[in-house]
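hiii so my PI (J.) wants the whole complex modelled not just the main chain, which honestly fair. so below is everything: two entries, each one labled with what it is. i double checked the lines twice but i was tired so who knows lol
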Amino acid sequence: MASTASPASLPRPRVPWAVVGVTPFMVFAVLFLILPTLFLVVGAFQDNDGSFTLANLGKLWTPTILSSYWISIKVSVASAVLGAAIGAFIAYAAVSGGLPRWIRPTIMTFSGVASQFAGVPLAFAFLATLGRQGLVTLFLSSVFGLNIYAQGFNLLSFWGLTLTYLYFQIPLMVLIVAPAIEGIKKEWREAATILGASTWQYWRHIAGPVLLPSFLGATLLLFANAFGAIATAYALTGSSLNIVTILLYAQIRGDVLHDQNLGYAIAFGMIVITGLSNLCYILLRMRSERWLK
Amino acid sequence: MKTNRLSHWLAILIGTLYFLVPLAATFEFSLRKIRGVYSFEAYRVVLADTQFKSSLGFSVVLAVVTIVFGMAIIVPMAYFVELRLRKLRPFIEFVTLLPLVVPAIVIVFGYLRLYNSSSILPLTNFTLGTNFLLACGYVTLALPYMYRSIETGLRSIDVRTLTEAAESLGASSGTIIWRIILPNIRSAMLSGAFLTFAIVIGEFTFASLLNRPAFGPYLQLIGANRAYEPAALAVMAFAITWACMGIIQVVSRNSVAARP
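here's the output for the full assembly
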């Protein structure tokens, strides 16, 4: 890291300025990003006396913790896959033409706003919409006589949380994938059509394979995005929905478990999961950039 | 082709509905505080709450500190990496993407263990230290976005030529950054700044676990205890986010217009 910035490896005598300029950031990154993460990762493999152990990771295999990981993964996968599919379709509809010109910038601006509209206020918005007294809930029951809560819907559940997460996942997908869709050249379609390809063949053999890495990569990014989220879920459900971020939150607050090394292990597990999905994202992006340049 | 266009319209329409209905519902809900009539009573109650003002004020100050602090360490770093230390780029890319890999709650957990009262650097022992820690946390949260926008800004100007021209006229590195580079990447910096503002203003995890009286934990507290005020707060929060994003649009459009 910092050693690569050592004066010896650089030409010209005015180099110290560059080192001076880069150092504050390096110090910051080490102190407030790398060390805290390493501390937890190392702690996950230590017992209370500081010697090496795998017992903490072993303790993750209890029903409560496993189920919290599982619910988190399910919500993240569902909101990522649905968000990616819907977002890609909206982005395609907005970018590929056929619609009035003003649609595209409007959609992009709005996606910028909605993708940032997360956290606690988003939970409030969905409670006001689909909560027991929410506008849509009341509308459905008064106009169609449909009581969605009697039908088994609950905002404080897997589907409720997924539906809420989609509010920032779909716009995020639109933002990420729109440039890739713009990279699809009209000429490819024309060439394919001239050679007698059907729409299905065009998508199956040309546009699909070119877009697939960006699409999958963006899906993985959405997954990590949902997996690390806590504020929306916490404000929506209190601690009634057992997802892993809320479990860790309670653990940090000292409400449960009373075992700090187990807390490290939970955190380590989260880093492993988001880390793997980001690694795949980077690999996929490297692939997709070959075509879209 | 015609059915195609129809399905495009349908996608846009359903998408728009999905995004506008909750906003409309939230607004409608926020007006229901007095039974039977629509009123702005919930807004009046919220705005009269001293905790609302103090927590929002706290978060605004913290957002400004975060932006200034973040820019102060990121701009020189990005400038020198672009100019002379290209070898560092892979490492910088890795570090600036790290906050997207490590969830916020994990980072703050690390802070609490690393900087608690029994550590070498007990930042959480005193208020100013904890506030500083919170600002640092927000810089890490905003890092991917800030760095990305500044890097884009730097790449769109010819850093090397500008620097060499200024150097040949006798300018020092500090002068070059302050008087040549900064004015040229102003719009990129503003975009990063407002995005950071939007992220920081309602942030919950860091502020709550560091026990600071910020706007995010206040929102959560109101949400747990009141019925209609949360909706009013959500409308306001959305307005703030919208304002930030709107300003980014205007700023970046102006910068495009200014460049021939």
